[in-house]
Amino acid sequence: MKRLDPRLGLTVLCLMATFVLVACGSKPRAPIPVEDRVAGQNPVRTQPQTQAPKQNSPVAVSSPVSMGNTMSGAEYAGKPGYYSVRSGDTLTKIALEHGQAWRDIAKWNGLDNPNVIEVDQVLRVVPPSADTSGRAMAAARTSGNSSVNSAANSAPASSSTTSPVPVSAPASAPASSAAQSVSSDDNLIFAWPHPGQVLSGFDETKNKGLDFAGKAGDPVLAAADGKVVYAGSGLRGYGNLVILKHNNTYLTAYAHNQTLLVKEDQSVQKGQRIAEMGSSDADRVKLHFEIRKQGKPVDPAKLLPARP
């Protein structure tokens, strides 16, 4: 048998050792970049991303939205002619307490859905034309003109000082017109809404009107000429309710009815039958009748004529 040359064996061993050293010292290749191809654009090369551990993943938290000062109209909170919605309020309740029609309040505030109002939401509860002095004062504060501010608050009837809000009549005209309107409104003569016995008299805290005894189906009569601004059962504690607006000062309310005979926006005459007496949302058959002067309940007995 022929023996191998020792020099050849040594050469083979050296080559094997060199291969092992080169293999151990080489760096691993990086992942091949991925190409995102979008039609009509040059390819964008992005590197593969490593996913973070699940325990380190961010958690999306939805914090409650604060309606406070970020709500539209919040700058008017507490000012005359504006009202901040409280828990339990409905647009009907707000309208009744401010002597307005709920449809008007919805229109003045741009409410697409009058059933959706938020706590702390600021609502206008007077007609836009009724807060002219408030806008004038705001304009005066913005311009820093104290003389205009003074004129907006206490300008005499004969003053010719220019107001920041355009007017088409002398300063004395609106005041005179308003005084005549109030005088005319206060001269409204009411009639009894039902001939039955008065069960409960007026009390500012316990009973905001008069309660009349009667039988189910008895006629409920309009106390004065007016327009139906509410007919429904959406105000808790009143059952089937009719509210009439008689002028800019007075509203009347007729509660606990069995049947309503009028619809919203309908004009009615004094003595017209507007509902039938019932016991809706009440412990017995009765008519609860209220007179509200600029939204505030007043004693109907003081405004109704003496019974024959």
Descriptors:
about 300 residues; alpha+beta; Membrane-bound Lytic Murein Transglycosylase D, Chain A; Glucose Permease (Domain IIA); two-stranded antiparallel ribbon; 14 strands; about 25% helix
Structure description:
This protein is α+β, with helices and mostly antiparallel strands. Among the domains are: 74-128, Membrane-bound Lytic Murein Transglycosylase D, Chain A (Roll); 198-302, Glucose Permease (Domain IIA). The protein is 23% helix and 21% strand. The radius of gyration is 39 Å and the shape is elongated.
**Helix/strand/pairing category:** alpha+beta
Characterize the quaternary organization of these chains.
single chain
Number of helices: 6
Main β sheet profile: 10 strands, antiparallel
Strand percentage = 15-25%
Strand segment count: 14
Annotated CATH homologous superfamily of the domain at 198-302: Glucose Permease (Domain IIA)
Could you estimate the helical fraction of the residues in percent?
10-25%
Text of the CATH class of the domain at 198-302: Mainly Beta
